[in-house]
UniProtKB/TrEMBL annotation, chain A:
Major site of localization recorded for this protein: cytoplasm
The keyword Nucleotide-binding is assigned to this record: yes
Protein name: phenylalanine--tRNA ligase
EC number per UniProt: 6.1.1.20
TrEMBL record, chain B:
Gene Ontology cellular component list: phenylalanine-tRNA ligase complex
One example of a Gene Ontology biological process annotation: phenylalanyl-tRNA aminoacylation
Cofactor list: Mg(2+)
Chief place of localization: cytoplasm
Record protein name field: Phenylalanine--tRNA ligase beta subunit
Source organism: Folsomia candida (Springtail)
Length: 508, 571
C-alpha cells in the first residue's frame, strides 16, 4: 500500500466496494489509516478532473470541535468541577481561592454556586469563605457533553447546550466540505494519469501522441511578466514629440531650468509689475541670484524702450523699468523663455528663414500644491514663424495638432496674455465630464516682443502652449497628479500603463 | 484672472435683454469672458464671470453690461464729457509725499444718484481694482468721498502718525495716533495685507480738506466723516499712487463707471492737482485716442477678407467708434475705458472677436520645414528605451528638493556640498529649497513610496540636474544625468554593473580602452563598495552599494545598488 499514491489507494478502495452507493471522503480518510482529510479531498479533486472515472457530490456541513480549553475540560474536568474538587472539607477563604486566578476559577466558582455544589458564606471577622454543600451529588455534566461531541454524538445534546458550550469557548463549529465518491462510467483501478505538460523528452521519443493531457483552465489570467517599463507621462511626451515632428516642427534645446527675468519676462513684454513676477508665483534664486550678463546692450535698450515709453507703434506700459529686476534669476515659469532666446537667434540670421519649432520640458511655479497642481510640470510649446501668417493659420494648426491627440471638438475663446495678441484659449469638449475644458493657450506674438529682437515687421509668429500632465491625466483617467508625477508615483500604475495611443480615445 | 460676481437680473436689465444660462455662456465665450459659475442666493441668481486681466473696464456689472449691450447692438458706445467748472477743485501735494507715495489724481462727479446696487458695485469695483491693477494698493489706492461734507481745497502730505487724528471709516471713535491704528488693524483680515506699505514709515500719507478734516489715510483707510452713502449727491474721488500712469487708468475706470449714475450720464468735472516741482495735473484724463488701421493688414493678420465698411461696423460693436478713411484706412477712436489697447494688434484682436473666432476659416500654415529632434533628448530617449528593455522601470522625480535630501540624507557634508548648489530664495516649503544636483534622492524616495511593490525594484531616470556655472549667462547650467537603482534582499551590485556595461555596449564604448571603473570612497556609498566611472580619462559618475545609513535616511529597509553618470559626454 505504502508505495501507492493516495489517488491510487482511493481507486483501490472504490474497486473493493461491492455496491456503488458511494463513500464519504471522511470515511475514506478513516479507512486510509486516519489520513489527513484535506489531502484526501485533494486527491479526489485530482481524480475528478479525469473523464468520468469517478463521480463526486459535494457536501458542506458544520463540524463541532473542541477548543484547547475544551480539551482541558475533558482531561481535568470542568471549571466548576475543579473548583469543587479543590475546596477542602473545612472550606477555604475566598481570597485564597482566587489567588493567582486567570479568570477560570472565578468562572468555575460562579458555575459551582449556581449548580448548588458550593456556597459562599460570610464569617464573623467579615471575610468570605467558600464551602462545599453537603448532600449533593456532583456530576460533571459539561465534561460528559464534550465527550459526546468528541464521539460524534452531539445531536441529542440540543441547540441550547451547544450554544452554551460555544459561549464558554469550549467548542467551535467549523464548516467542512466533504465529498461522496462513487465509481464513474470510465472507472478503472489503473487510470492513465494525463500529463500536465508537453516535454522535450516526449517530443524526442514521440510519446506525446499516445498521451492524454490535462485540460487548461482558460478562465484564469496568465502569469505576470517581469520587465521594464517607461513612465506613462514620458510615453505621452514621446507621442507628442512624434506628432510634432510629423508636422514638421523641430525640437528646441530646453535644458536650462534657471533663467533670467529678462528672458523669462522682459523679452516677452511681460511688465515688471505683472503679478506673475511676484514672489508668490515664481521661484527666485538666492544663488546664483542674478544673471552674469544680459544679451547685447542694444537689444536690452530696445526692450527697455518698448516697455517704458513704447516703440514700433506701441504706447508701451508707461511705467519705470528697472535693470536690477530684469537681472534677477528665477526657475523658469514657462518654456517661452527658451522660445524667446530661439527667436532672438533667428532674428540675427539674415535673411529671415521661416521656421517651425517645439519643445516639451519642465517649468516651475511657486504654487500651493493640490490634486492638480505641482510646483513643477511639463509644458508643451510650439510656434510657426513666417510671413503672411494669420489667426486662421493658428486655428488651423490647433485643429491639426489637437486632432492628432484625439481631440476633435474644439472651440476658441478670445483671451489675454501679455505676449500674444490676438490671443485665444483652446477649449476641448470632454466626453467624460460632458463639458468644455481649457486645454491650451495660443496667439500671435506681440510686435513689442518680436520687433526689439530685430525680426522683420512683416514676420508673424503663431504660437501655442499646453501642459503635458493635463491631457495625460484626462487620457488615463488619473485624478491625483501626485500618483503620476514625482516620487509618490504608484509603480504598479507604471507597470500596468497601456500604450500611449492618443488617436484611440477610450470610451469610458 | 479676476472673477466678478454680478446679480444676473441686474446685469440683464442693464444689457436690455434676458438670456438663458447657456445663451449667456455662449455670448461670454464669443466676447472673451467666461461664465465660470452660476450660484443662487437670497438676492437671486449670481453669475461669476472671469475677466481677462487687462480689461479693467469689465470689473463691474456696469462695465460688463455696457460692453455686451454694445456688442449685441443694443446701444451705442457710451461717451464721456469733461466739464470745466469756473473754479476747479484743487488738491495741493506737499513735497513730503515725494519719497513715499508721490502721485495723486482726483475727479469730481456731480448730481449722482447712488442706488444700493450702485453702492455695492462701487465697493466691489474698488476692491477688484485694488487687488489687480493696483497690486494690492502698493501702486494705487482709491478713496471715494461725499464732497458736500468737505471743504475744498484739499491737501495731500505726509505727516508724523502721532499728529494724525481722525475717526476711521466705520469706527465710532477718534484715533489720536495713526500708528495705534496700524496695531488695531493688525487683526483685521481685510486691511492687514496693506499695513506693511506704510506701517514702519516715519510719516504717513494723509489727505485733508481746508478745515483739517482727514479724508483718508492712504493706502489703508478713509475717514468716516466723508463716507459715501445712498444719499450722496456729489462725489470726490482721489487716488494716491507710486505709479502715475496706473493711477490715471484707475481713475478713468472708476469715473467712467460712476458717471453712469450722474444726472447727465457721462459728465465728469475736471479737477487739478498742484505739485511743487511738477506741472499742474488736470484730471481725470478721459482721453479718447485715435489709431489708424490698415484694412488689408487686419484682414491678413486675422485670416479673413472683409470690407472697410464691415470692419468699421465690427469695431463699433466692440465699443471702438470707427470711420473709413481714404485708401483702405480706418480711423479708430479708443475710449478712455480701453487702456488695454496700446498697439494696433490689440484692435486687430477686437476685429477678430467682433467677426467671431468661430467664423474664421482654419487654414494650415503654408510654411514648409524639415523637422529635427534635439540630439541630447533623442539620445536620452533611445537609452531610456534600452534601459527599460533591460528590465528597469522609469521614474519621473522632481527637479527641486530639500537641502537635507542633497546633503544630510546622502551623508554629504553640508559645508562642502552647500556652496555648489543652486538655491531657491522663496520656497513655500522645504521640499523646494534647492535645484537638485543628483537624481539619486528622487529615486530613493520613489522606492520609499512603493514599499508594497514586490522586490526587486529596478528604477531609472534620465533627467537634468542643475549646477552653478560661471560660464553661463545665468550663472547656472543644466546637466543631463542617468541614474539607476536596484534594491532587493542583496544589493545586486552585479546588476547595476551589468547595466553600465550594457549602456556602454549600446553606445559602442569599449571596456578598458574607453571606459573603466576605479575604486573610490564616497560617504553616500558603503565602504569599499564604490567606484568612479571613467570615460576617456574623465570621471563621469559613480556607482556602488549605497551606505545603509543613506538607505535608512530615505526609509529604505533593503540593500540597494546605484549608478549615476553624466550623459552629455556621449553626444
Amino acid at each position: 500500500m505504502a508505495s501507492l499514491s493516495l489517488s491510487d489507494q482511493i481507486l483501490l478502495l472504490l474497486t473493493k466496494k461491492d455496491d456503488d452507493g458511494g463513500i464519504s471522503s471522511l470515511d475514506l480518510a478513516a479507512e486510509l489509516g486516519e489520513e489527513d482529510h484535506q489531502k484526501v479531498v485533494g486527491a479526489i479533486k485530482s481524480l475528478a478532473t479525469l473523464d468520468d472515472v469517478i463521480r463526486t457530490e459535494q457536501y458542506v456541513r458544520n463540524v463541532l470541535s473542541l477548543t484547547e480549553e475544551g480539551k482541558i475540560v475533558v482531561s481535568q474536568g470542568s471549571h466548576e468541577f475543579r473548583v469543587w474538587q479543590n475546596i477542602p472539607d473545612s472550606g477555604i477563604e475566598l481570597d485564597t481561592l482566587l489567588l493567582g486566578d486567570g479568570g477560570s476559577t472565578r468562572v468555575g466558582l460562579n458555575k459551582a454556586v449556581a449548580s448548588g455544589w458550593v456556597r459562599i458564606v460570610k464569617k464573623d471577622d467579615g471575610k468570605s469563605w467558600v464551602e462545599r454543600c453537603l448532600n449533593v451529588e456532583v456530576v460533571d455534566v459539561v465534561k460528559s457533553q464534550l465527550l459526546q461531541i468528541i464521539n460524534g454524538d452531539s445531536a441529542p445534546l440540543g441547540d441550547d447546550v451547544i450554544t452554551d458550550l460555544k459561549r464558554r469557548r469550549l467548542v467551535v463549529s467549523n464548516s467542512v466540505t466533504t465529498f461522496t465518491v462513487s465509481r464513474g462510467a470510465n472507472f478503472s483501478q489503473n487510470v492513465e494519469r494525463p500529463e500536465a505538460e508537453l516535454t522535450a523528452e516526449m517530443m524526442a521519443n514521440e510519446e506525446y501522441a499516445k498521451k492524454n493531457f490535462k485540460p487548461y483552465n482558460f478562465n484564469a489570467m496568465g502569469t505576470t511578466l517581469q520587465g521594464g517599463h517607461l513612465h506613462p507621462l514620458l510615453k505621452v511626451k514621446a507621442e507628442f514629440l512624434s506628432i510634432l515632428t510629423e508636422l514638421g516642427f523641430s525640437e528646441m534645446p530646453t535644458n536650462r531650468f534657471v533663467e533670467s527675468s529678462f528672458w523669462n519676462f522682459d523679452a516677452l513684454f511681460v511688465p515688471q509689475k505683472h503679478p506673475a513676477r511676484d514672489v508668490q508665483d515664481t521661484f527666485f534664486l538666492a544663488r546664483p541670484e542674478n544673471c552674469t550678463r544680459l544679451p547685447d546692450e542694444e537689444y536690452v535698450a530696445r526692450v527697455e524702450k518698448v516697455h517704458t515709453v513704447g516703440d514700433y507703434g506701441s504706447d508701451g506700459y508707461q511705467t519705470p523699468w528697472r535693470r536690477e529686476e530684469t537681472q534677477r534669476n528665477i526657475m523658469r515659469t514657462h518654456t517661452t523663455a527658451i522660445t524667446g532666446r530661439v527667436l532672438y537667434d533667428l532674428a540675427q540670421q539674415k535673411p529671415f528663414k521661416p521656421v517651425k519649432k517645439f519643445s516639451i520640458d519642465r517649468v516651475f511655479r511657486n504654487e500651493t500644491l493640490d490634486a492638480t497642481h505641482l510646483a513643477e510640470f511639463h509644458q508643451v510649446e510650439g510656434f510657426v514663424a513666417d510671413r503672411g501668417l494669420s489667426l486662421g493659420h493658428l486655428i488651423g494648426i490647433m485643429k491639426e495638432f489637437f486632432g492628432r491627440l484625439g481631440i476633435d471638438q474644439l472651440r476658441f475663446k478670445p483671451a489675454y496674455n501679455p505676449y500674444t495678441e490676438p490671443s485665444l484659449e483652446v477649449f476641448a469638449y470632454h466626453k467624460g465630464f460632458k463639458k468644455w475644458v481649457e486645454v491650451g493657450n495660443s496667439g500671435l506674438f506681440r510686435p513689442e516682443m518680436l520687433r526689439p529682437m530685430g525680426l522683420p515687421e512683416d514676420v508673424r509668429i503663431i504660437a501655442w502652449g499646453l501642459s503635458l500632465e493635463r491631457p495625460t491625466m484626462i487620457r488615463y483617467g488619473i485624478n491625483n497628479i501626485r500618483s503620476l508625477v514625482g516620487h509618490k508615483v504608484d509603480l504598479r500604475l507604471v507597470y500596468s500603463n497601456p500604450l500611449c495611443r492618443l488617436d484611440k480615445v477610450r470610451e469610458s | 484672472m479676476p472673477t466678478v460676481s454680478v446679480n444676473r437680473d441686474l446685469l440683464f436689465s442693464k444689457i436690455g435683454k434676458a438670456y438663458s444660462d447657456d445663451e449667456f455662456d455662449k455670448l461670454c465665450f464669443q466676447f472673451g469672458i467666461e461664465l465660470d459659475e452660476v450660484a443662487e442666493d437670497d438676492d437671486g441668481v449670481e453669475y461669476k464671470i472671469d475677466i481677462p486681466a487687462n480689461r479693467y473696464d469689465l470689473l463691474c456689472v456696469e462695465g460688463i453690461a455696457t460692453a455686451l449691450a454694445v456688442f449685441t447692438g443694443k446701444i451705442e458706445p457710451p461717451r464721456y464729457t469733461k466739464l470745466t467748472p469756473k473754479v476747479k477743485i484743487t488738491t495741493v501735494v506737499s513735497p513730503s509725499t515725494q519719497s513715499i507715495r508721490p502721485y495723486l489724481v482726483t475727479a469730481v462727479l456731480r448730481n449722482v444718484t447712488i442706488t444700493p446696487a450702485a453702492y455695492k458695485s462701487l465697493i466691489d469695483l474698488q476692491e477688484k481694482l485694488h487687488h489687480n491693477i493696483c497690486r494690492k494698493r502698493t501702486l494705487v489706492a482709491i478713496g471715494v468721498h461725499d464732497l458736500d461734507k468737505l471743504t475744498p481745497p484739499f491737501t495731500y502730505s505726509c505727516e508724523p502718525p502721532e499728529q494724525i487724528k481722525f475717526v476711521p471709516l466705520n469706527l465710532d471713535k477718534e484715533w489720536t495716533n495713526a500708528r495705534d491704528l496700524m496695531e488695531f488693524y493688525g487683526s483685521d483680515t481685510h486691511l492687514k495685507p496693506y499695513l506693511h506699505i506704510i506701517k514702519d514709515l516715519p510719516a504717513y500719507p494723509v489727505i485733508r480738506d481746508s478745515s483739517g478734516i482727514v479724508l483718508s489715510l492712504p493706502p489703508i483707510i478713509n475717514g468716516d466723516h466723508s463716507k459715501v452713502s445712498t444719499s450722496t449727491r456729489n462725489i470726490f474721488i482721489e487716488s494716491t499712487a507710486t505709479d502715475l500712469s496706473k493711477a490715471h487708468v484707475v481713475l478713468d475706470t472708476l469715473v467712467a463707471m460712476l458717471s453712469q449714475y450722474c444726472e447727465n450720464k457721462g459728465e465728469v468735472e475736471i479737477t487739478e492737482v498742484v505739485y511743487e516741482n511738477r506741472p499742474v495735473d488736470i484730471c481725470p484724463k478721459l482721453f479718447t485716442r485715435n489709431m489708424a488701421l490698415d484694412v488689408d493688414t487686419v484682414n491678413e493678420t486675422v485670416g479673413i477678407s472683409i470690407s472697410a465698411g464691415e470692419m468699421v461696423s465690427t469695431l463699433n460693436r466692440m465699443g471702438l467708434s470707427s470711420q473709413v478713411k481714404n485708401s483702405g484706412q480706418i480711423s479708430v477712436q479708443i475710449p478712455p475705458t480701453r487702456h488695454d489697447i496700446i498697439h494696433t494688434c490689440d484692435i486687430i484682436e477686437d476685429v477678430a472677436i467682433g467677426f467671431g473666432y468661430e467664423n474664421i476659416v482654419p487654414q494650415l500654415p503654408p510654411t514648409s520645414t524639415i523637422a529635427a529632434q534635439n540630439s541630447l533628448n533623442k539620445l536620452s530617449f533611445q537609452l531610456a528605451n534600452c534601459v527599460a528593455q533591460a528590465g528597469f522601470t522609469e521614474g519621473l522625480t522632481f527637479s527641486l528638493c530639500s537641502m537635507e535630501d542633497e546633503c544630510e540624507k546622502l551623508l554629504q557634508p553640508q559645508a562642502t556640498k552647500e556652496p555648489s548648489l543652486v538655491i531657491i530664495s522663496n520656497p513655500k516649503s522645504q521640499d523646494f529649497q534647492v535645484a537638485r544636483s543628483s537624481l539619486l534622492p528622487g529615486l530613493l524616495k520613489t522606492v520609499q513610496a512603493n514599499k508594497g511593490v514586490p522586490l526587486p525594484l529596478k528604477l531609472f531616470e534620465f533627467s537634468d540636474v542643475v549646477h552653478l556655472d560661471s560660464e553661463s549667462d545665468t550663472g547656472a547650467k543644466n546637466c543631463r544625468h542617468f541614474c539607476a537603482i536596484y534594491t532587493n534582499k542583496t544589493p545586486g551590485f552585479e546588476v547595476i554593473h551589468g547595466l553600465l556595461d550594457r549602456i556602454m555596449q549600446l553606445l559602442e564604448v569599449k571596456f578598458e580602452d574607453e571606459y573603466s571603473l576605479r575604486a573610490a570612497e564616497d560617504p553616500t556609498y558603503f565602504h569599499g563598495r564604490c567606484a568612479e566611472v571613467i570615460y576617456r580619462n574623465e570621471v563621469i559618475g559613480k556607482m556602488g552599494v549605497l551606505h545603509p545609513k543613506v538607505l535608512s535616511n530615505f526609509g529604505c529597509a533593503m540593500p540597494c545598488s546605484a549608478i549615476e553618470i553624466e550623459i552629455e559626454p556621449f553626444l
